[in-house]
Design goal:
single chain; alpha+beta; five-stranded antiparallel β-sheet; globular
C-alpha cells in the first residue's frame, strides 16, 4: 500500500485510540484486526484483507450493540481517512451509553 497520506488505509490512528481506551485488539492471520470495547457493546473491524468487505468497498466495520436498543452498523469505505474513523469512534464512546 502507498504510504504518506492519511487515506492510505493505515489503521494506526484508530488502533492507537482503541488501545488507549482499553479495548481488546486481536490481529488475524490474514492481517485483519478486530477490536471490542471493554463492555462488549462495540466491535470494530479493520478488514484490509477481507474479500467480502472489499466487494462492498469497505475497510472499516463498526457494530454497536446498545444495552437498551437495536444493534446498528456503520461502515467506512476504502478512501475514508483513518483519522475520520478515529474521530467517529471517539465521539461514539464519549457520547454514547453503549
Amino acid at each position: 500500500m502507498p504510504s504518506g497520506s492519511s487515506s492510505d488505509q493505515c489503521a494506526t490512528p484508530v488502533l492507537d485510540l482503541l488501545s488507549t481506551l482499553g479495548w481488546a485488539i486481536v490481529d488475524t492471520p490474514e492481517a485483519n484486526v478486530h477490536a471490542t470495547s471493554p463492555d462488549g457493546g462495540v466491535h470494530v473491524g479493520w478488514l484490509p484483507e477481507d474479500p467480502a468487505a472489499w466487494k462492498r468497498n469497505i475497510v472499516w466495520h463498526v457494530r454497536v450493540l446498545p444495552a437498551g436498543g437495536d444493534a446498528w452498523v456503520q461502515e467506512f469505505g476504502l478512501h475514508t481517512p483513518s483519522e475520520a474513523v478515529a474521530g467517529f469512534l471517539a465521539a461514539l464512546v464519549t457520547h454514547s451509553s453503549c
